[in-house]
Each structure stands twice: as structure tokens, then as C-alpha cells.
Write a structure and sequence with these properties.
Low-confidence stretches: 13-23
Mean pLDDT: 83
Order of helices and strands: HHEEEHEEEEHHHHHHHH
Strand content: 5-15%
Structural class: alpha/beta
Largest sheet: 5 strands, mixed
Helix content: 40-55%
Shape: globular
Radius of gyration: 24 Å
Oligomer: single chain
Distance between the termini: 37 Å
Number of helices: 11
């Protein structure tokens, strides 16, 4: 293989990604701790959550932002959840794009597929139109208005429980993560967020503490100071749970590097170039090649 072709092959495989494709640590924590929690604290009548799903859905528009949250509920229904600080009728077009993405990824012709669209409005919005209709489509949203929640009263009730050592219920945790959104205005949200973070860090149970910190950052992501958000993410990464996922991230990266190196070896790319791209030694590459050859000849039991 010529040097030019080798370089093209390496560029192709680099585009596949040697480095770890960042599986958000917050998503991984929340995907486990959202299980069986309910949206009743927001005034929504939905089945309990079975699973938080990834939002890396098929792209429709290159410059379009992604879905805020996607859940699988206990009854098998998919639920798109979007947070909004203002009502704009044009947002319905964005929601239709979200729906198309979810359908493209998850729809199955089994007759049981169901999808719900939940819009959670912050304390800035008091009312909004729930439907959008044209001759060819009717879009129905289910809405929650956080302006109906007394954020200060909820904060004090949760604070008293934490100070008294009383374990928090799931509804307390679900309410805690959206308390910043019950306040109107960006400054008010930021101030409440900082109070919630201080309170959440006092929760005795580590799992609940990490859920509260992760959840509030995810829920408030569109409305809070980016630098402050990163500070909280770093705090989470310093916990035992964060360290566990950091370890997993490193292991995943190493595995992807080995897979990349093996592809290069099979394409007969110069071993010096493979060492340069992957950071693996010659001995590691030869051992990887030998293990692959042994696997290929091992009889299937």
C-alpha cells in the first residue's frame, strides 16, 4: 500500500473517532436514578419513568438544537420533554422535528407505539396554546406550568427534611431539580439554582445527592450561566459515582483505540504510523494482532 493510500486510510478511520465519544456522565447517572420516578410533582399525570433515553437522534437540521429529555415510561410510551421560558407558536415546528427524529429511531409497526410531547414552562409563562393544527397534521402537547409551584415553600419544606435527617421522597427530588425553573427571569433562576446546589450538597444519601445535582443542571441547562454549570459538573466528577464513570470512560477509550489499531493492521498500514496515531507500542500491536488471529481460529463451541 502506498504512503498516500495509507494516509487516506488513517484519515478515514480517524473520522470514525479514536477518542472516547463523550457519553455524558450526567446522563449515565440520571439514566439509572430516574427509574420509577414520577412527573406528578409537576402536575402531570404520566406513568412512572422506566428509562431515560439518549437524545442523540437522527439530525434533520444541522443547526437545530437537540431534544431536552427523552423518556421511556413504564407503559411503553415514549415521552419527549422540553423546557421553555417563553411561549412561541413557532416552537411547534421544532417539536414536529423532534417527533420525526424519535419516530425515525424508535417507531415499530407493532400497533403499540405511542409518543407523548411534554412541554414544561418555567415560571415566566402562565398560559400557552396546547395544540397546533393544519390541514395535514394536528400536534397536541401536554403542558406543565411551573409558575403554579410555590418555589420558596417547596425549597423550605425540602430544607427542613434535610436538616432533620428525614429521607427525601422521589417527589421531593423531582421537585428539587426544577425549583430554579419555578422562578421568572434569568437572574432569579440563577440565584435559586445556586441555593438548590448548596442545599443538594447537604443531602446525606450520595445517590440522592448526585441525582439532585445532575438533575438540576440538566433541567436548567438552557437557562443558567455556562461557567457555573461546568463548576457543578466538576464537583459531580469528584464524587465516587463520578470517579466510577471516569474510569469507565478511560476503559472505553482504550477499547476504541485497540479497535482502531486492529483495523489499521488489517489494512496493512505501516506499523510506525499506527503507533504514532494510536499511541500503542509495537509489542502491544503485535500482541493485539496475535490475539485476533487466535480468536479467528478458535473453534466455536
Amino acid at each position: 500500500m502506498t504512503r498516500k493510500k495509507e494516509r487516506i486510510c488513517m484519515e478515514d478511520m480517524m473520522s470514525e473517532g479514536i477518542t472516547y465519544q463523550n457519553k455524558d456522565i450526567l446522563f449515565k447517572i440520571l439514566s439509572q436514578t430516574y427509574k420509577e420516578k414520577s412527573f406528578s410533582a409537576y402536575g402531570l399525570d404520566l406513568p412512572p419513568i422506566r428509562e431515560l433515553l439518549p437524545t442523540n437522534l437522527p439530525k434533520i437540521s444541522a443547526n437545530e438544537k437537540g431534544v431536552d429529555n427523552l423518556f421511556l415510561l413504564e407503559d411503553g410510551t415514549y415521552a419527549i420533554v422540553d423546557y421553555e421560558a417563553e411561549y412561541k407558536r413557532s416552537n411547534k415546528v421544532k417539536y414536529l422535528n423532534y417527533i420525526a427524529r424519535v419516530l425515525e429511531k424508535y417507531y415499530k409497526e407493532d400497533g403499540n407505539f405511542n409518543l407523548r410531547l411534554i412541554v414544561i414552562y418555567t415560571g415566566d409563562v402562565k398560559r400557552a396554546e396546547a395544540t397546533f393544527e393544519t390541514s395535514c397534521v394536528t400536534l397536541r402537547t401536554e403542558q406543565a406550568f411551573l409558575s403554579h409551584i410555590d418555589g420558596e415553600a417547596a425549597f423550605e419544606a425540602i430544607r427542613r427534611k434535610i436538616d432533620s435527617g428525614i429521607p427525601l421522597e422521589d417527589d421531593d427530588l423531582m421537585k428539587l431539580v426544577i425549583l430554579p425553573l419555578t422562578v421568572s427571569g434569568s437572574e432569579g433562576k440563577q440565584a435559586m439554582l445556586e441555593r438548590v446546589v448548596v442545599l443538594a450538597e447537604q443531602i446525606a444519601d450520595e445517590g440522592q445527592r448526585i441525582f439532585a445535582l445532575s438533575g438540576v443542571i440538566v433541567a436548567s441547562d438552557k437557562f443558567i450561566d455556562r461557567e457555573y454549570s461546568e463548576q457543578i459538573r466538576r464537583r459531580i466528577n469528584m464524587t465516587k459515582i463520578g470517579q466510577l464513570y471516569e474510569k469507565e470512560k478511560i476503559e472505553y477509550a482504550n477499547q476504541k483505540t485497540r479497535e482502531m489499531a486492529l483495523k489499521m493492521l488489517k489494512r496493512n498500514i505501516d506499523i510506525i504510523d499506527i503507533m504514532e496515531v494510536t499511541g500503542l507500542t509495537e509489542a502491544e500491536l503485535l500482541r493485539l494482532q496475535e490475539e485476533d488471529q487466535n480468536d479467528a481460529v478458535r473453534p466455536v463451541v
